[in-house]
Specification:
9 helices; single chain; Arc Repressor Mutant, subunit A; 2 strands; Four Helix Bundle (Hemerythrin (Met), subunit A); two-stranded antiparallel sheet; mainly alpha; 2 domains; disordered C terminus
Length: 234
């Protein structure tokens, strides 16, 4: 990595600041998929010692954003077909359970909040603000998970949230028209308002797997077994 397209930080904030900067740099591809992470360069860029950088990379490895090889290198975890498939297969299970419980607890003010988030998504799409669109997209889904009032589901969802953020950011870069991202979110809110669990879960399932298909659809089909697992996004 010859140059670093990442922000600087105040050394007094140290570990948490370094974690947040590196995490966001991976999510928005400033540190691209499969890139080697040079701790010395990052420490110099951020104006900190190598200690906080090393600690931050340990946290990011737990989140699945980087991979380390003992005595060799640290790389940004490649986005592969297998990574996306595993991530979204877990996501759809967690969000489907959360959705079912959320419908049971739904109040008028919750519908108002969800419709408000959808409207913010529309505005962000119209203004071509992909960063705000990605943020509100995830905010919509997290709101449903929180509405479920299930601590373990929320905890597990938060563990995969960073990976989902990364995929959502990649997905939004693929669309020619950002208003496509709004997609079936309004229809899902309608099904929730009607307390139609079967329809709502089907809409959610199709929405999540359509998102996954948009991400992997940009890659060539693997020519041999296992090839797709090492193939990073371009």
């Amino acid at each position: 990595m010859n140059s670093l397209n990442i922000p600087t930080t105040n050394p007094r904030t140290l570990k948490q600041n370094v974690i947040q900067i590196l995490r966001q740099s991976i999510i928005d591809s400033s540190l691209p998929s499969g890139a080697e992470v040079n701790q010395v360069q990052i420490a110099e860029r951020l104006g900190v010692s190598r200690g906080p950088v090393r600690e931050a990379l340990g946290i990011l490895e737990q989140e699945g954003l980087v991979q380390s090889t003992p005595y060799k290198s640290v790389i940004v975890t490649p986005l592969t077909r297998r990574y996306v498939d595993e991530l979204y297969s877990v996501r759809v299970v967690l969000e489907s359970l959360a959705l079912e419980r959320a419908i049971d607890r739904l109040q008028p003010e919750n519908l108002e909040e969800l419709n408000g988030i959808v409207e913010m998504m529309r505005i962000a799409a119209q203004e071509q603000d992909s960063e705000r669109l990605a943020k509100t997209d995830l905010e919509f889904h997290e709101y449903i998970v929180r509405l479920a009032d299930h601590e373990l589901v929320l905890k597990l969802w938060k563990q995969i949230e960073v990976g989902v953020q990364r995929c959502v950011h990649t997905q939004h870069e693929i669309y020619t028209f950002l208003d496509e991202v709004v997609g079936t979110h309004p229809t899902l809110v309608t099904a929730m308002a009607e307390r139609d669990k079967a329809t709502a879960k089907q809409i959610l399932y199709e929405h999540i797997y359509e998102s996954a298909s948009h991400i992997v659809g940009q890659w060539p089909s693997p020519q041999s077994e296992g090839e797709g697992e090492n193939e990073a996004t371009k």
